[in-house]
């Protein structure tokens, strides 16, 4: 496969407001938002991912609050003033262990958010309203349907909205089509936490993640067993994001499909604070070896204020900056990466060797747990990485397809048993 010049890789942050966290929508203060965004622009970042709090924006199925939509537009405009592009998440959904779901989907009005026709039409109305309001803003990148909404569909959620993988796919198609109608040509996406890659029987599948929407999004969190098994600086920890990016490509129909590392962070105590900068540098460096990487968006911009109660301990300290907008070591590490990338674009690795993955049927991946930390496939991939190799991932059903292998530049196949 001929070498393709590297494209610029975006570097940004998931925006967590310093005053009131996402509850700031209830007492929106544009001056505070500007100060937050200025502190991120000072790191050299080029974009932020922002989160509309769904019950605040759509408290009734037929009402999307004009004032909330106006304030979102003001935030996007403020970002433009300091040189930041903006991706917007709508169905929030799930954020930092808390669920924010409007009352018209719960208790006396209980409906399934994925399969109830009226509920889905309400979601379509909400997405279209946001998209239309942002469509003419040059720095608007696109909508992500919501943050890790797949966690509502299955265990371990305490009150799930069950659906089949077919219903999940139909829901994604319908909502993304609404985004495209309202704001054509933008990067409209969907995001899932890693059950999509690792949990057998989960209704949202790797095929959904890698084939639906303008690009694939990946959320990489080492508290999923990787850091517990490999330590804060082990191969299985600092290569996790790279692994997930490559894993996603196995299901993609387009060999050049862009992949966005939409969330990645350094959660304490699994990554001790004194090692956060080194973890950040290693994780980003490894991710930058992946071809077709659209961008990296760190979680998160600012620490959660200790004045707020009941967050899991790790959530308070994930910021690149403190809640007082002081740059932390991880923030300095990201700023250093940005400065280097401006001098020299990344050089993705040509991955001519692929490790064959058998997760069962392509559409449903019934044995995808082999990909999880501690699974046979995960361990085999990491053994190769520890030896300095950077393997691609190819599905067993495509391992003997010469056109597929040629399109991806794969010339050598290994199986997990070959790595022992």
What does this structure look like?
By secondary structure, this protein is of the alpha/beta class. It folds into two domains: 334 residues, TIM Barrel, CATH 3.20.20; 67 residues, no CATH class. It is 34% helix and 14% strand. The protein contains 14 helices and twelve strands. The strands form three sheets. A seven-stranded parallel beta sheet has the order 6-3-2-1-9-8-7. Helix 4 packs parallel to helix 5 and helix 10 packs parallel to helix 11. The longest helix is centred in the first third of the chain and has 18 residues. The protein is globular and about 60 Å long. The N terminus is likely disordered.
Helices and strands, with pairings:
Layout: E1 10-14, H1 30-41, E2 47-53, H2 54-57, H3 66-81, E3 85-92, E4 94-95, E5 98-99, H4 117-134, E6 140-144, H5 165-182, H6 195-198, H7 206-211, E7 216-220, H8 226-230, H9 235-238, H10 240-251, E8 259-264, H11 276-287, E9 293-298, H12 329-343, E10 353-357, H13 376-386, E11 392-395, H14 402-408, E12 412-414
Parallel strand pairs: 1-2, 1-9, 2-3, 3-6, 7-8, 8-9, 10-11, 10-12
Antiparallel strand pairs: 4-5
Helix pairs in contact: 1-3, 3-4, 4-5, 10-11, 11-12
Keywords: Hydrolase
Protein name: Glycosyl hydrolase
GO molecular function: hydrolase activity
